[in-house]
Amino acid sequence: MNQKKFLKICTILPVSRINLLDSVITSLINQTHKIDNLIVVYDGDQNGFVEVRNKISVLKLNAICAQSNNATKAFSIPDRRKNIANIHNQIRNMINDADWVFSVEDDGMVPLNALERLLNVANTYDNVGMATGVELGRWGVPYVGAWVVDNVDDVKIITSVKNKTLIEPYCVDEIDACGLYCALIRADQYKKHNFFAHNGLGADVNLGLYLRKLGFKNYIDWGIPITHITNKDDIDILISAYNDASIVELRKISDNVWESRKIKKE
Length: 266
Fold this sequence. Notes:
Elements: E1 9-15, H1 21-29, E2 37-42, H2 46-57, E3 62-67, H3 77-92, E4 100-104, E5 108-109, H4 114-124, E6 128-134, E7 146-149, E8 157-160, E9 172-175, E10 177-178, E11 182-186, H5 187-192, H6 203-213, E12 217-225, E13 227-232, E14 235-239, E15 246-254, E16 257-265
Parallel strand pairs: 1-2, 1-4, 2-3, 6-12
Antiparallel strand pairs: 4-11, 5-13, 6-11, 7-8, 7-10, 8-15, 9-12, 13-14, 15-16
């Protein structure tokens, strides 16, 4: 896949789970479209930050490692979403010169051609705001972390998309929002956006809706399966994007309250 022009890419990686970091870094440094710039923000204590900084310092690329500004560790979903939003607001101020932001997370291994394929989507389709791959297992529920909404200007219903990883692996579909586990985002808009989660939605969903309201289009490439890593009883569990996935619907109850239900399992 050929890129139309040389593009400046800034890869961003928020980190809170050090035990998974080596696997994530390996999947990044071996990308077919080479990564030159990396920003890592560690959300944890000073000892953990030193460990992460040491891992990043030996990489042969331009890398910045910082500690997050979050005052406390988050445990509840609302607090975790708030902390994630804070981290992305911190990162956006650390990006100097980039055309695109390649966002990955510390609990996912992206395929080696992930960035190459995402750039191909950005160069093939018009007015792309964000493009993503496929990951399951967000918040412990097996659904695809990509969404469509009823009305981007007045959202009342948000629905996760049906998993096409097995049946249409080379298909690209329009979506409204997605997770930031393997996402290519317009850098100018990432830097302008004020990340938030006080409306009951995650910072990632709010970013997608922000882009859609500006007239950009967001996409999912079903040929980019991300392996999600979770942990149970100190054992790492790998969740493939090819696994069965539920379809989840969120309905707005009030300004910051959403009711979720599982519609069906494929």
